[in-house]
Amino acid sequence: MTDALVVSGLTKTYRGAGRGPRVVAVDGISFTLAAGGSLGVVGESGSGKTTLAQMIVGLAEPDSGTVVIDGRDRRDLRRGRRARLQRATEAQMVFQDPYGSLDRRLDVAGALADTLRRHGTPKDRIARDVAALMDRVGLASRLANSRPHELSGGQRQRVAIAKALAIDPTVLVLDEAVSALDVSVQAQILTLLDEIRAESGVALVFVSHDLAVVGQVTDQILVMYRGRAVETGDTDQVLRRPEHPYTEMLLSSAPGPRWQPERVAELRAALAAAT
Ligand code: ADP
Ligand code: MG
């Protein structure tokens, strides 16, 4: 079977501000994700997670390396964008703040209809598809005519997920998609994502600074530190027995049973000394 997503040697450097040094935001990241699989990408702010996510969905151009979705190189996908047949083999992104990505003038049904229309859904199928999408992400039909400001943060994120699912993507990339939500709402969205993955076989790339959140929704984890993958493996294994001191530091710095501020300081000093 073809893998949903194969990322090979992705690298991206940003020019520093003014005469500042160049920043290697992402440095040779590779991984493979099967259909229906889920990968968590974790690391502190600035570790390169968003840049990696942007390259996967085509919002940033890599300096080198390739992104292959459903057996097709992303660069060829772009060239074939006009061919509507290819629309199903794409990756879609869900951002932290759907307020920014949702049109304030459109209600829920309008926003979904707009997305479907733009991807070539025939007119006579739109109403039905809108209802199906709302149902799929757990939005009550009475919300069809609500606009973004009338929705809760969790409901807005459900709309953003529905929009991303509208074209039936192979890969769904979520960048800090639950980071702005209350813990109980986070749990609801994570459960929803897991259901969607199981039902549709969409592959999830779940990006978060929060290792505990990532652990709830993914079966593989990739830990990024300064643009590099310092550790990858099964989620259980990485959470229970981290091999890299940076992973241990992330685990020890989160509130919860692993919280060890003194250990964090110790590990941070060791990491700084090593580079
Ligand atoms: P994360 O999402 O893990 O916080 P980012 O991918 O946003 O990490 O950033 C990685 C590094 O690349 C940081 O040092 C950041 O300052 C830099 N960076 C990200 N985007 C840009 C950009 N558009 N221009 C210049 N530098 C950038
Ligand atoms: Mg980020």
Automatic annotation (TrEMBL):
Q: Which InterPro entries match?
A: AAA+_ATPase, ABC_transp_ATP-bind, ABC_transporter-like_ATP-bd, ABC_transporter-like_CS, Oligopep_ABC_C, P-loop_NTPase
Which superkingdom does the taxonomy of this entry point to? Bacteria
- Which intervals hold domain ABC transporter? 5-251
Q: Does the keyword Transport apply?
A: yes
Which protein is depicted?
Answer: ABC transporter ATP-binding protein
Q: Does the keyword Transport apply?
A: yes
- State the UniProt keywords alphabetically: ATP-binding, Nucleotide-binding, Transport
Q: Which CDD domains does this one have? A: ABC_NikE_OppD_transporters
Known SUPFAM superfamilies for this protein? P-loop containing nucleoside triphosphate hydrolases (SSF52540)
One GO MF annotation is: ATP binding
Name the SMART domains for this protein: AAA (SM00382)
